[in-house]
Automatic annotation (TrEMBL):
<keyword id="KW-0732">Signal</keyword>
<dbReference type="Pfam" id="PF01915">
    <property type="entry name" value="Glyco_hydro_3_C"/>
</dbReference>
<keyword id="KW-0624">Polysaccharide degradation</keyword>
<keyword id="KW-0325">Glycoprotein</keyword>
<keyword id="KW-0964">Secreted</keyword>
<dbReference type="GO" id="GO:0005576">
    <property type="term" value="C:extracellular region"/>
</dbReference>
<dbReference type="Pfam" id="PF14310">
    <property type="entry name" value="Fn3-like"/>
</dbReference>
<dbReference type="InterPro" id="IPR001764">
    <property type="entry name" value="Glyco_hydro_3_N"/>
</dbReference>
<dbReference type="InterPro" id="IPR036881">
    <property type="entry name" value="Glyco_hydro_3_C_sf"/>
</dbReference>
<comment type="similarity">
    <text>Belongs to the glycosyl hydrolase 3 family.</text>
</comment>
<dbReference type="InterPro" id="IPR036962">
    <property type="entry name" value="Glyco_hydro_3_N_sf"/>
</dbReference>
<dbReference type="InterPro" id="IPR017853">
    <property type="entry name" value="GH"/>
</dbReference>
<dbReference type="InterPro" id="IPR013783">
    <property type="entry name" value="Ig-like_fold"/>
</dbReference>
<feature type="signal peptide">
    <location>
        <begin position="1"/>
        <end position="17"/>
    </location>
</feature>
<dbReference type="InterPro" id="IPR050288">
    <property type="entry name" value="Cellulose_deg_GH3"/>
</dbReference>
<comment type="function">
    <text>Beta-glucosidases are one of a number of cellulolytic enzymes involved in the degradation of cellulosic biomass. Catalyzes the last step releasing glucose from the inhibitory cellobiose.</text>
</comment>
<dbReference type="GO" id="GO:0008422">
    <property type="term" value="F:beta-glucosidase activity"/>
</dbReference>
Length: 908
């Protein structure tokens, strides 16, 4: 351990390295803050014993030629078997005997911290039991700038506070179960259109007036970036997130995965992220630049200008070995990459009894080739291990507790021994193709319980609403009739005319950009129900005076065509509830569970009311997505623009009623407001960049060993056999500057509680129920009218009351001050903070204030905040130069990878 300690002692320093030609990179070398220190000590000991090619093995996935085995990090010399990677947010992707969890959207719809954690833990446990070390979940990018955005159901809510709590809890739950949760996608990945050049030019839009040449650039100002889109990442870093996936899009015309300011300065510096950064399939666009900009692990990389995934080739692998040897990438950067990956492994105790990988991703066969492209090693590739445990119970509870009741006239619900039930709509019943009939759930047949794309998983079974309602209705001897054909109006009319209650099911779907359904290229092309859903509701309501609408959707839908119809007596939104869909619905329909879900987004009256939308037609060869709305998305926009929504953010009814009283706003004694600089002090220091001892350079150590025969499409870390190489200059040659990185989650003071707010809530109805009480703060200084800064879900018996509290942390009363690059407590700016507590964002029952405090802090936060987006744009797709806000860094967007220089002259 003395060896390890010496290794660690050198490490508390990030380094600014000059590369290339004047541009500056600042990859912090992590050192293991707080509860990461033990993991870092082990990781350093492990990594410092590795050769360059062994370290490269840890950073580079072996490629599509080996999807049946450990994906990376196989190091035979030290007996390290490697690491397995897989999706996804709804369960272990593309295998069997796993659960199909609710969409993460439903976790947010519950507003229930315990249920969010419970489902995350269960999902993590299933990944671990299948042998998956690293799971690509959870999602908070997209955050939900536009309700049409295809992948919003994989995440939570466009409100950063609700998303942040949910994201942090999901990371904590998955980590606690032992799998490494990968937060994704970092960041400003807010639409599917134009995220990848190949996807949009070649597959989807061959008739466009021009082809895109790069992924779209999301251009947001620094304050918007911090207060909306980065906010949830702070939560997850604080809660122990050990891995982050960088996204497809560019920011300010620099690829997210090679954006030094974003990855090195913000994520690893300001936010104090201790884990590793991994690319998405095809989001890496360079070798050397991505390494210097802070990426630590690559999965399949794009290595052609048009973005095809190269088979058996990589920006890293042999290219990274060569780059380290020729001095393009300093070896301390490679050491730091490998250390961060191994630190995550030790942080989650994966060195202790972690199960062997026991399935082949994407292939359910019991026997097959271990290396399918090479067609060698035919053997058992699936053990079909059932990892579902008791998770169906959790899925059903999340499903039932996420259902949002939007309308319930004259106690239509819960159903009380209805004499005859009519069930109408394709969305009520099973698909004729089965629940897994379309690859990656890329169709909308039968009841909808999951969106499409890589965020999907296989259903072990799917309880559809029709089956569950029929089973329950038997208990009451109800007659049940149904029509699943949305277009057979004559039959529908005759069936509903006989019924005492009519349940009409509608849906719409969205997903990832590589799949198109009916002109919806990932992103929804509208916000209305599919398969003539609006007409279907009106058809039923026209013939049935007691019509209950149930909607399965990935986000908000427009309800104006029928919501005020007098015969529409109840409306339930059920999100995308996973395998227990019908059972969860029955729990609410029949009152076994009192509905308690609340909308995690605004339901507008028309699409244009949202003020933001997907860019469907590229505005340039490098599409420029300008976030000109700044902070004003979803309810922040509706409030600002004075637009009345149909159902506001945070809305949801119950079978009982609640009254609010006795607001108490109590400062926490001893908590003094400070200006919480994001990063700790910075100092310039010249440091010795050697992290680990150096091995003598010897060509035979880096070229393809004669003992290994190369498998087809398989990525190794070696240079070609018999190649020779030039050892590059000592790196870095210029002076190096050290700045202290932040602690995980940014400055610790951000997390200090400064106030507690307490209210009394009474259940004034006749049944027990849960209320989601919500705290909104008005921060002045150009901030939105009100912003969610607390929520608390509490079960209260009929006739009883309870005290419900919210803790307000310093970050909750702070805004991002661009000039000082720090969070500033608005109370120090002379602002008295408005406090409101209520049942939704517009049903605010109690109001008060938190006083301003004088004389502390020196924030220069603009009272005149307005979103200004001045990112360099490009009309011709040529290289753009980005000026970062701190004026310090200049990074060329395009840098032709100079690292592919195998071989030069022989010295090794
Ligand atoms: C790198 O990994 C491959 C398997 O992916 C393995 O065959 C090889 O021995 C490893 N190389 C080193 C240097 O550990
Ligand atoms: C390096 O690895 C070898 C082989 O596993 C092992 O014997 C040795 O103890 C390791 N050294 C350190 C410093 O971990
Ligand atoms: C492109 O044009 C062809 C011929 O007009 C048409 O058949 C096809 O549907 C169009 N494709 C798209 C994606 O618009
Ligand atoms: C866009 O690219 C596609 C596929 O490479 C090609 O078929 C099409 O002609 C291109 N369109 C334009 C306008 O260049
Ligand atoms: C993008 O540019 C804007 C100014 O135009 C700046 O405020 C913001 O910080 C930049 N974002 C990144 C990630 O560099
Ligand atoms: C190295 O990267 C380049 C792209 O810069 C790619 O074309 C090449 O195939 C890669 N080499 C290997 C051996 O993967
Ligand atoms: C609700 O009940 C009241 C009182 O019985 C009745 O007047 C009203 O029409 C009912 N509303 C609906 C929509 O059925
Ligand atoms: C299945 O869904 C797809 C669209 O998702 C649709 O085109 C097709 O007609 C549906 N099949 C049936 C039998 O309904």
């Amino acid at each position: 351990m003395a060896y390890a300690a010496a290794c660690v002692a050198l490490l508390a320093v990030p380094i600014l390295a000059q590369y290339p030609e004047g541009s500056l990179y600042s990859p912090p070398i992590s050192s293991g803050y707080g509860n990461w220190s033990a993991a870092y000590a082990k990781a350093h000991a492990f990594v410092c014993n590795l050769t360059i090619t062994e370290k490269v093995n840890l950073t580079t996935q072996t490629g599509t030629g080996a999807s049946y085995s450990y994906s990376l990090g196989i190091i035979p010399r030290v007996g390290f078997r490697g690491l397995a990677l897989d999706d996804s947010p709804t369960g272990v992707r593309s295998t069997d005997y796993t659960s199909a969890f609710t969409a993460p959207l439903n976790m947010a719809m519950t507003w229930d911290r315990d249920l969010i954690y419970a489902q995350a833990y269960a999902n993590g446990a299933e990944h671990k039991a299948k042998g998956v070390n690293i799971a690509y979940s959870p999602v908070v990018g997209p955050l939900g700038r536009s309700p049409e955005s295809g992948r919003i159901w994989e995440g939570y809510s466009p409100d950063p506070y609700l998303s942040g709590v949910s994201f942090g809890l999901t990371v904590a739950g998955m980590n606690a179960a032992g799998t490494i949760a990968v937060g994704k996608h970092f960041v400003l990945y807010e639409q599917e259109h134009f995220r990848q050049v190949r996807e949009w030019n070649d597959w989807h839009l061959p008739n466009a007036t021009f082809n895109t040449t790069e992924p779209y650039s999301s251009n947001a100002d620094d304050r918007t970036l911090h207060e909306l889109y980065l906010w949830p990442w702070y939560d997850a870093v604080h809660d122990g997130m050990a891995a982050v996936m960088c996204s497809y899009n560019q920011l300010n015309n620099t690829q997210a995965c090679q954006n030094n300011h974003l990855l090195n300065d913000i994520l690893k510096g300001e936010m104090g992220f201790q884990g590793f950064i991994v690319s998405d399939d095809g989001s890496q666009h360079s070798g050397v630049l991505s390494a210097l900009a802070g990426m630590d692990m690559t999965i399949l990389g794009e290595t052609s200008p048009n973005g095809e995934l190269g088979l058996g080739i990589s920006f890293w692998g042999p290219n990274l070995t060569q780059s380290v040897l020729n001095g393009s990438v300093p070896e301390w950067r490679l050491d730091d990459m490998a250390t961060r990956i191994m630190a995550a492994y030790y942080y989650l105790d994966q060195d202790q009894d972690f199960p062997e990988l026991n399935f082949a991703q994407g292939d359910l066969s019991t026997f097959g080739y271990l290396y399918p492209h090479a067609m060698v090693d035919y053997q058992q590739i699936n053990e079909h291990v059932d990892v579902r445990d008791h998770h169906a119970d959790i899925i059903r509870r999340v499903g039932a507790n996420s259902i949002i009741m939007l309308k319930n006239v004259n106690n239509t619900l819960p159903l009380n021994k209805p004499k005859q039930i009519a069930i109408i709509g394709e969305d009520a019943g099973p698909s004729i193709y089965g629940p897994n009939g379309c690859s990656d759930r890329g169709c909308d047949n039968g009841t909808l319980a999951m969106g499409w794309g890589s965020g999907s998983t296989n259903f072990p079974y799917l309880i559809d609403p029709l089956a569950a309602i029929q089973a329950r209705a038997l208990q009451d001897r109800s007659v049940v009739q149904y029509v699943l054909d949305n277009y057979d109006t004559a039959l529908i009319d005759s069936v509903v005319a006989q019924a005492t209650v009519c349940l009409v099911f509608i849906n719409c779907d969205s997903g990832e950009g590589y799949i198109e359904i009916d002109g919806n290229y990932g992103d929804r092309k509208n916000l209305t129900a599919w398969m003539r859903g609006d007409d279907l509701v009106n058809e039923v309501a026209g013939n049935c005076s007691n019509t209950v609408v149930i909607a399965h959707t990935p986000g908000p839908i427009i309800m104006e065509p029928w919501i005020e119809h007098p015969n529409v007596t109840a409306v339930l939104m059920a999100g995308l509830p996973g395998q227990e869909s019908g059972n969860a619905l029955v729990d609410v329909l029949y009152g076994a569970v009192n509905p308690s879900g609340k909308t995690p987004w605004t339901i507008g009256k028309q699409r244009g009311d949202y003020g933001t939308d997907v860019m469907y037609v590229a505005n340039a060869p490098v599409p420029q997505l300008n976030f000109t709305e700044g902070l004003y998305i979803d309810y922040r926009h509706f409030d600002q623009a004075g637009i009345a929504p149909r159902f506001e953010f945070g809305f949801g009814l119950s079978y009982t009623t609640f009254s609010y009283s006795n607001l108490r706003i109590q400062p926490v004694s001893g908590a003094s407001p400070t200006t919480a600089s994001a990063a700790a002090s910075s100092a310039q220091t010249t440091v010795n960049p050697s992290v680990c001892p150096r091995y003598a350079l010897n060509a035979s150590a880096y070229t393809f060993p004669s003992t290994i025969s190369s498998l087809t499409d398989y990525i190794y870390p070696y240079l070609p056999r018999n190649s020779t190489f030039t050892v590059g200059p000592a790196y870095p040659s210029a002076s190096v500057i050290a700045t202290s990185p932040g602690t995980p989650g940014g400055a610790p003071a951000l997390w200090d509680t400064v106030y507690t707010v307490t209210v009394s809530i009474a259940n004034t109805g006749s049944v027990a129920g849960q209320e989601v009480a919500q705290l909104y703060l008005a921060l002045g200084n150009g901030e939105p009218l009100r912003q969610l800064r607390g929520f608390n879900k509490t079960m209260i018996q009929a006739g009883a009351s309870a005290d419900v509290s919210f803790t307000v942390r310093q970050r909750d009363v702070s805004i991002w001050d661009v000039p000082s690059q720090s969070w500033v407590d608005v109370r120090t700016l002379g602002t008295a903070v408005g406090v409101s507590v209520g049942a939704s964002s517009r049903d605010l029952r109690l109001n008060g204030t938190m006083a301003a405090v004088g004389g502390v802090g020196s924030g220069s936060a603009a009272g005149n905040y307005s979103a200004s987006v001045t990112a360099a744009t490009t009309s011709a797709g040529g290289p753009a130069v980005t000026e970062y806000s701190d004026g310090q860094l200049q990074v060329p967007t395009e840098y032709s990878d100079g690292q592919v220089q195998v071989p030069a002259s022989a010295t090794g």
